[in-house]
Design a protein that fits this description.
The chain is α/β, with parallel strands linked by helices. It contains seven helices and nine strands; from the N terminus they run αβαβαββββαβαβαβα. Helices cover about 35% and strands about 20% of the residues. The strands form two sheets. The protein has a seven-stranded parallel β-sheet with strand order 3-4-2-1-7-8-9, sandwiched between helices. Helix 1 packs across helix 7, helix 4 packs parallel to helix 5 and helix 5 packs parallel to helix 6. The protein is globular.
């Protein structure tokens, strides 16, 4: 009981007084299963857009959209060029495109070279979102097999945003979380169950 109260207190302290404009989640190997653990339960009228970047093979993105439409109450969409970010929507980066967030809160797709062999790259999405949203951004990095996302999460931290890393001991592949922790100590290192609690608590962060 005391441990649960301590975790809840830690999460409340991390988000106290924080206005949130958007949430960006990055993952690679094992990421689909991790997302299935943390996203169900978010309400249909969740007050923030949730932008997710997964390393997937070309042509697989639409399958992810369909998989998560069956599992979450949020609207689920593939991010489209020039489309505005909307609250209550879970976005997936399209396969084989880098996804950026532009001033004014719209998406931009590009065909720049892969980063750590990945396109979409988590770093590009997180860094661009940090430039736009600054301290109003929440960045979450989950399981993965390369270094992509570590620099992006560090950029979010430097901009004053909240940075969260999945506990490497729990991650299916710990390379990505470990690299993020090595590069810049995140605000929170949490198991998936507590990342899910944090996302639920963020529902009232702007009230």
């Amino acid at each position: 009981m005391h441990e649960l109260e301590s975790i809840a207190g830690t999460l409340r302290l991390a988000i106290e007084g924080r206005k949130v404009a958007a949430i960006v989640i990055g993952a690679s190997a094992g990421g689909v299963n991790a997302l299935i653990e943390i996203l169900p339960g978010l309400p249909r009228k969740y007050p923030h857009p949730v932008v997710t970047v997964l390393h997937v093979m070309r042509g697989r993105q639409n399958q992810l959209v369909e998989v998560f439409r069956q599992r979450v109450a949020l609207q689920v969409e593939e991010a489209a060029d020039k489309a505005p970010l909307a609250a209550g929507t879970l976005y997936f980066a399209p396969s084989d495109y880098h996804l950026s967030v532009e001033e004014g809160g719209t998406f931009s797709l590009s065909l720049e070279p892969p980063v750590y062999f990945a396109r979409p790259a988590i770093d590009i999405t997180m860094e661009s979102a940090a430039d736009v949203y600054g301290p109003a951004l929440v960045g979450i990095l989950l399981t993965g097999a390369n270094q992509d996302g570590a620099a992006g999460l560090a950029a979010i931290g430097r901009a004053g945003g909240l940075t969260v890393v999945q506990d490497p001991h729990e991650a299916q592949v710990a390379v990505m979380p470990n690299e993020a922790i090595r590069l810049r100590q995140p605000d929170l290192v949490l198991p998936l169950r507590d990342i899910r609690k944090l996302l639920l608590m963020l529902e009232t962060s702007n009230e």
